[in-house]
Amino acid sequence: NFGPIESGICACGKHQGIEKKKENIRFCEQLEVEFMDSQIRRYRMVYIKLAWSVTHVWYLKHLPSYVANLLAKPLKDSSHSHSSWAP
Predict the structure, then answer these.
(1) ∠ CA 2-60-66 to the nearest 5 degrees?
(2) How far is 8 from 5, CA to CA, in rounded Å?
(3) Distance from CA of residue 78 to its chain's centroid?
């Protein structure tokens, strides 16, 4: 979870931290998450373990290629899976 979609509203949708500020309640009792500003989503990072390595196509399209330089391989060898990608 990167954070709330709407400021001060819990993901369960039943509890609002703004209303409960008078009582100084900062956590949703149901989900046990902190009420906070939705702007926090812009700063949070998450690690997700996947079955294989994945990178954004921008890292492959940029010249010089960061991925090719990191792997010390030509771009065509390091980008075989992105050729089937289409927006």
Answers:
(1) 85
(2) 9
(3) 24
Nearest partner of 3 among 44, 32, 31, judged by Cα: 44
* Alpha-carbon span 66 to 9, nearest angstrom: 39
What is the distance, to the nearest Å, from the Cα of residue 27 to the centroid of all Cα atoms in its chain? 22
Q: Is 76 exposed, middle or buried (0-12, 13-18, 19+ CB in 10 A)?
A: exposed
Six token digits for residue 69: 């330089």
| pLDDT tens column, 7-32 | 777 777 766 655 545 556 677 777 77
pTM over 0.85: no
Rounded CA separation 82/84 (Å): 5
Tokens of 56: 């954004």
